[in-house]
Amino acid sequence: MIRRLFIRKAAAAIAAATFPASYLSLSGRAIARPRRHRVEIEGFRFTPDRLEVAVGDTITWINRDIAPHTATATDGGWNTGELVKDAEASVTVVSGMQTTYFCAFHPMMKARFSITPKDQ
Ligand SMILES: [Cu+2]
Questions:
Q1: Beta bridge partners of 91
Q2: Is the pLDDT higher at 118 or at 25?
Q3: Interacting residues of 91 by C-beta distance below 8 A, sequence separation 6+
Q4: Is residue 88 part of a domain?
Q5: How far is the C-alpha of 42 from the C-alpha of 17, rounded, in Å?
Q6: What is the pLDDT of residues 94-106, one digit of tens each?
Q7: Is 85 inside any structural domain?
Q8: How far is the CA of 50 from the centre of ligand 1 (A)?
Q9: How far is the CA of 84 from the centre of ligand 1 (A)?
Q10: Ligand 1 centroid, distance to 32 Cα (angstroms)
Q11: For the chain: N or C, fewer Cβ within 10 A?
């Protein structure tokens, strides 16, 4: 007696290769995830005093001086409020926000950042 083995070919479920398109722009370049930037306030200076950021990034200022400081937009549009020693505050970068800032207590303390356009 001949046993015949019938092997039924299982229908191969072909999973569509769903690439996470949300990580790609139309040009195929990766979109940077939001980054966190840190500015130390020490010796009555913002360090660094120039930053390149993108919309959605966060900038955190931390005061290392005994004197209180702020990071206050030149147009008053955003403000960390008073930062005592070792206090920190963060601002999220939004399109069109003021990019020059100073310390409200020591207006000679000035710094800036520039917002690079996001590829999306
Ligand atoms: Cu200050």
A1: 59
A2: 118
A3: 58, 59, 71, 78, 80
A4: yes
A5: 51
A6: 999 999 999 999 9
A7: yes
A8: 17
A9: 10
A10: 32
A11: N
The pLDDT tens digits for 82-98 are: 999 999 999 999 999 99
Asked if residue 20 has pLDDT above 50, the reply is no
Give me the amino acid identity at 3.
R
Q: State the CB neighbour count (10 A cutoff) for residue 53.
A: 21
Q: Is residue 69 part of a domain?
A: yes
Rounded to the nearest angstrom, the distance between the alpha carbon of 35 and the centre of ligand 1 is 25
Q: What is the mean pLDDT of residues 60-82?
A: 98
d(CA 109, ligand 1 centre) in Å: 6
> Which tokens is 4 given?
């015949």
Under 8 Å between Cβ of 98 and 70? no
Query: Looking at residue 30, what DSSP letter applies?
Result: B
Which tokens sit at 68?
Answer: 């209180």
What pLDDT sits at residue 117? 80
| C-alpha 39 to ligand 1 mean position (Å) | 13
Report the number of distinct structural domains present in the chain. 1
Residue 23, helix vs strand vs coil:
helix
